[in-house]
Amino acid sequence: MKGAYLGELEELILLTVGVLYQQAYGVAIQEEIENQVGRKLNISAVHAVLKRLEEKGFITSSMGGATEERGGRRKRLFTLTSLGKKALEEANEMRTQLYNQIPRIALQFHSY
Amino acid sequence: MKTPPRWADRFLEWYCNPDLLEEIQGDAHELHKKRVRVHGMFLADLLFAWDVIRFLRWSNIKRNKRNSTSNSMIMLKSYLTVGFRNAIRHRLNSSINILGLSLALGVAITSFVFIDNQLHTDFFNERLDRIYQVTNRIETDNRIDDWSDTPALLGPSLAKDLSAVEASTRIEYSNASIRYNETVFSEFIWFADPDFMNIFSYPVLQGNPHALKNKNQIIMASELAEKYFGTSDPIGQALSVKFNDDLKEEFTVGAVIERPNGSSLYPTIIFAMEKFEDLRPKDANSWSYQVDGTFILLKPSHSPSELVEALDSYKKIQNEASPQWLVEDFQCYPLKGLALKSSDIISAVSQGAHPAGLISLGVVSGLLLLLASFNYMNVSIATVATRLKEIGIRKVIGGQKKEIIQQFLIENFLLCAISMAVGCLLSYLFFLPGFNSLYPVDIPFIFSSGNVVFLFFGGLLVFIGFVSGAYPALYIASFTPIHIMRGREKFGQKSLLSRVLLTFQFVLAFMTIVGSFVFIDNSLYLKNKDWGYNHDQIIAIPVGEKEKFLALRDKLNGNQQIANLSGSVNHIGRANTRASFIYKEQKHETVDYRVGFDYLETMNIRLKEGRFFDRNIQSDADESIIINEAFAKKLGWDNPIGQYFEFDSLKRYVVGVVHDFHYEGFYNALGPVLFRIAPEDDFKYLAVLIKSNHLNETEKEIKSAWADIAPDDPYEGFIQDEVFADFNNDNNANVKLLGFISGTTVVLASLGLFGLVSFNITRRMKEFSIRKVFGANLSHVFKLMNRDYVWILLIAFLVGAPLGFYLINTLIQNIYPDPQAARPVPFFIAVSIMLLTVAFTVSTQLSRVKKENPAATLRND
After folding, report:
1. pLDDT tops 60 at residue B255
2. Among B488, B499, B503, B799, fewest CB within 10 Å belongs to which?
3. Domain encompassing residue B26
4. How far is A56 from A77, CA to CA, in rounded Å?
5. Distance of CA B397 to the CA centre of its chain
6. CATH number for the domain whose boundaries are A8-111
7. Where are the alpha helices (H) located in B609-694, listed in sequence order?
8. Where do the structural domains in chain A lie, given as residue ranges?
9. Quick check: B329 pLDDT over 60?
10. CA neighbor of B27 nearest in space, from A46, A86, A53, A51
């Protein structure tokens, strides 16, 4: 297993997998990110990151859900593992912790 | 349907790991469909292609090795198991295949070993690329030939005058009687310059490689050292050597060399060239005396073309020195490949096979390989019916065409590999030793390098594997399972290709067997052909010098068993000296025999007209000449008796004409021959005609008489029959080799036929059983069986037999100037052997039909 460090894109996609719960596969993830974050990703990049996440043990996958528009081909559906969930929580926690340490004043610059 | 561009999709399918293809392709297609709605067809297609390109990553390309190999390993195991079981089940066909292929491969491997050996002659020399032989080019009879003989001073001058020449050596042949303690041998000896050992890399087993610098030392080949000294140390041993001119000297052995396998030169005992200069100072230091060979070693990065100018200046010197032997120019031949040129260089010092022989050997082996491969193809196609169900099931449960092809090719390669191993054994144990015993060669079963082994055997396996296996595999793999399962297919029954192949096989078989038999017939004819004189009761003894001749003659003169005896300078069949003379301003060549008065009577030469020499006629001693028919014909004399011409600066009158006789084997046409009387002082041979039935005891008496007269010289007498021993050995070897090749071809063709017939009978056993039940007799079945094969044989016979006959006849006409007119007898023998073989092959199979109980066959259903 490669280190538990989560890259920025990895974290984003891991989150999306969580969001899409049981309906997470390549195209869906790509669309979700585009809709919610407004970030355009190439599908091959999504695949590459998913593969990396699976190797790290944050997600597992199974085949299923063939549709007509895919020409009868099945999707690879991803779900979060407990390790993945823990990694998300840790990342989130670290962020919150850091965020909370920012002095109040610093956050009020826009009111000038 | 709006589908993404096919080419991009295909590209994706091609590069993508099959395990990942489904999800990737699915996503790509899904995206494409959505984009068509949003962006339109064109852009969507473009984006699809872009996606495909973006997916082109190593992680998507690389195959999960562990999985796929384990699968194909399992399949391989299955292929091998099934193949092995099949081979066992069809024992007969498998052994036919393996036997046929091994035979052909054995022959091919043997020829390859021989050819490889010949092509790498002299490769043991470290400086091979820099060694050259200098030859003389001389015009005789309107032809320019390369002569190995070159002026004695050429070699030393080259080394002295030219900076490009590092070293040179001359090679001069001679004979000597060599004595060690009580044993005396007559030896063929060499003189060479000390640089001989620097130019060539003969391994020195013992002693000093520079031994020739001392003119009283000699270098011996290891075989000879063993002959003289046995196991004791040869270095420093003293030998007493008597040269031709009766000069006796002591020499010590300075070094012993090994003659490596694949040396075109054949040194025996090498004396220092300095000794030759002592013995014959006039010859050794002249431009008019020719030594037997001259070799030079060039300095690195020099080429012989640099020598042209210098050689041109030597040409002038030589032509002034010997105006009767005019040189056109000198030529340099690299030692690399010299062996194969030996037959083009007159009196060459190097020895090697004629390239034509190597080529024909290669062609014959190639044909045999093809024949054996065709056998395999035929039998495989024929036996495919027994495996139809297997192929069908394999296909139904997902076997791809590719995999079926793979399966059959693997089986085939396995079989070929087994055959190759058997072929190697055959070659090692039988063919190569057989070849070595037939011809005066000693080729070991080795290859020139590891690469050669790898390339040859690898190439051979691939060639045989594909030639014999590709068509059956493709053919088998193309069956449709549904047809197989329904039982409608009748494969392997009447394939046009297998008939064509069988026909071709038999054409070749007819060609070789007819050709071989015609050749063999001619060889046997030549073996028993009249030589033009009765040679079986004649013994000839080389006597060396006058005293010994006289002593031996006097001793034998009183012998009751001896009918006649005479001395001579030259001897028919052994020493045929050529001479030329001018008649009516035209140059003619003749064989010139200088003989004693009773020589022609002793040799049983047959007089045609005129008379033999007569002691009592004064002029016979120098003016009279006896010629043969060819001589008279060449000079256009209808009435030769009394004709005269100038020869050897005397006017000669023809007093007798003898019938033509053979004096040097049967490869050369009979040329003009003349006999003249020589003084007793010059005699070198004593010919003895023995009364019938006393040959062996008289030979013993002559031997003991010789031992008394010349204890220092070995007895070298020979029965006249032996003078053509080389020719006869050659002839016998040819007969055996051709017999073997034609035998192999016939065996191969019969094996093919046997396989086909036996298979066809198995397949039609039910039909024959039913016919038998209904009262068909054996001849009826025989007719049914053979209808196919009779046609094939007939066509093969009509094409093959005349072709073989024609080809071999052309060859014979080329080799022998005077062959016998081709007779129909060998032709008929060859054809009947073929027909008998075929009949035997078919009838062994037919007896199966006869023995088979119809009930047993039919009960199965």
Report:
1. yes
2. B488
3. 6-63
4. 17
5. 54
6. 1.10.10.10
7. 629-635
8. 8-111
9. yes
10. A46
Nearest-angstrom CA–CA distance, B197 and B219: 10
3-state SS, residue B177 = strand
pLDDT of residue B458: 92
Q: Name residue A83's amino acid.
A: L
What are the tens digits of pLDDT across the range B193-215? 999 999 999 999 989 999 999 99
Q: Which two tokens stand for residue B533?
A: 């004189």
Residue in B708, B712, B628 with CA at minimum distance from that of residue B669: B628
The whole-number average pLDDT for the span B366-381 is 82
Distance from CA of A43 to the nearest CA of B (A): 7
Q: Which residues of A touch B (CB under 8 A)?
A: 25-27, 30, 42-45, 47-48, 51, 63, 66-67, 69-71, 73-76
Q: Burial level of B196, CB count in 10 A (0-12/13-18/19+)?
A: buried
Q: Say yes or no to pLDDT of A37 above 80.
A: yes
B contact test, residue of A27, A59, A68, A74 with most B CBs within 10 A:
A27
B448-474 in b/e form (b: 16+ CB < 10 A) is eeeeeeeebbeebbebbbbbbbebbbe
Asked whether residue B531 is assigned to any structural domain, the reply reads no
Tokens of B372: 């054996």
Total beta-carbon pairs less than 8 A apart between chain A and chain B: 58
Burial B566-583 (b: 16+ CB within 10 A, else e): bbbbbbbbbbbeeeebee
Q: Which residue of B has its CA nearest to A28?
A: B27
Which residues of chain B are at the A interface, by a Cβ-Cβ cutoff of 8 Å? 22-31, 33-34, 51, 54-55, 57, 59-60
Same domain, B47 and B147: no
CB count within 10 Å of CB B761 equals 19
Interface test with B, best of A31, A47, A62 (most B CBs within 10 A): A47
Cβ atoms B194, B317 nearer than 8 A: no
Q: Beta strands B217-221 and B248-257: pairing type?
A: parallel
Residues B589 and B653 in one domain: yes
Which residues of chain B are within 8 Å of residue A43 when distances are taken between CB atoms?
A: 27-28, 31, 51, 54-55
Are residues B327 and B473 located together in one domain of the fold?
no
Enumerate residues 6+ apart whose C-beta is below 8 A from B847.
none
Residue B413 lies in a domain: yes
Please report residues of A whose CB lies closer than 8 A to that of B51: 42-44
A78 Cα to chain B: minimum distance (Å): 12
Please tell me the predicted confidence (pLDDT) of residue A5.
Answer: 74
Both B390 and B341 in one domain: the answer is no
Q: Please indicate, yes or no, if residue B533 is contained in any of the structural domains.
A: no
Q: Which two tokens stand for residue B520?
A: 């063999």
pTM of the prediction?
0.70
The tokens 């610059």 sit on which residue?
Answer: A109
Which of B302, B324, B346 is the C-terminal boundary of a domain?
Answer: B346
Which of B25, B34, B51 is closest, CB to CB, to A73?
B25
H helices of B774-853, in order, are 778-815, 824-851
Contact B26 A71 (CB under 8 A): yes
**So what's the pLDDT on residue B477?**
80
Side-chain-side CA neighbours of residue B19 (13 Å): 11
From chain A, pick out residues whose CB is under 8 angstroms from the CB of B30: 27, 67, 69-70
Min Cα–Cα distance to chain B from A70, Å:
5
pLDDT, chain B, mean:
85
Q: How many domains does chain B have?
A: 5
* 3-class secondary-structure state, position B629: helix
- Enter the ipTM: 0.85
- Tell me the chain B residues in contact with residue A47 when contact means C-beta distances shorter than 8 Å: 23-24, 27, 55, 60
CA angle, corner B488, sides to B482 and B490, nearest 5? 115
Residues of B in contact with A42 (CB under 8 A): 51, 54
One domain, residues B835 and B790: yes
